[in-house]
Amino acid sequence: MTDAIGLRERKKRAAMAALREAAFELFGRQGFEQTSVDDIAARAEVSRASFFRYFNAKEDVLTFDDAQRREAFAAELSRRGGEPVLAALRAAVKAHVNGMDEATKARTVEYAKLIMMGSRTLLGQAYEIRIEWLRLVETHLRTRLADRAEADLTVPLLADLTVSVLETAMRLVSAHPGQDFDCIVDHGFDLIDYA
């Protein structure tokens, strides 16, 4: 039974990886809007039904692992609970990106490029994802800053600034490959600290 489950899981992961690779290739070559689910399935050599077994829509291929990445980010913030708030946020943002393998970083950069091309679908998805990240950071900060009188103002502002540093760094790295992500993050948090 364990071998069967293991094989099933391996096949699922292989199919999802093939679909992701096909989608990113096609989106990059012909654009998000011009690529259909059928195109992705054909390129990955699976059926349309197989595509929908793993993803609800073509945009979901781009962000399939976002929930796990948020969980890892939350765990990193929790581990840094004894550090000053800004230092913990800075370190968590850096650890988030530095913990990605090269393929994940490349896909994240490609996703940022696709968003910048202005697809309404992807812009809407990116906004929904941003809200989830804001909720995560705000939840953490509400606990950390609960004793502060101005927490109702500080928490959402600091959460938004943190997510903005992460998004801006990803956007800059996608627009100008070779830029040092850590330097951009440090500069962003230095600006927040300066204020």
Structural class: mainly alpha
The profile of the biggest β sheet is: none
Q: If you compute it from the alpha carbons, what radius of gyration comes out, rounded to the nearest whole angstrom?
A: 19 Å
Q: Give the DSSP E fraction (strand runs of 2 or more residues).
A: under 5%
Straight-line distance between termini: 59 Å
Helix content: over 70%
Look at the structure and give the mean pLDDT: 89
* Number of distinct helices: 9
Low-confidence stretches: none
Assembly of the depicted chains: single chain
Tell me how many strands there are.
0
Q: Could you give the order of the helices and strands?
A: HHHHHHHHH
Q: Estimate the global geometry from the Cα principal axes.
A: elongated
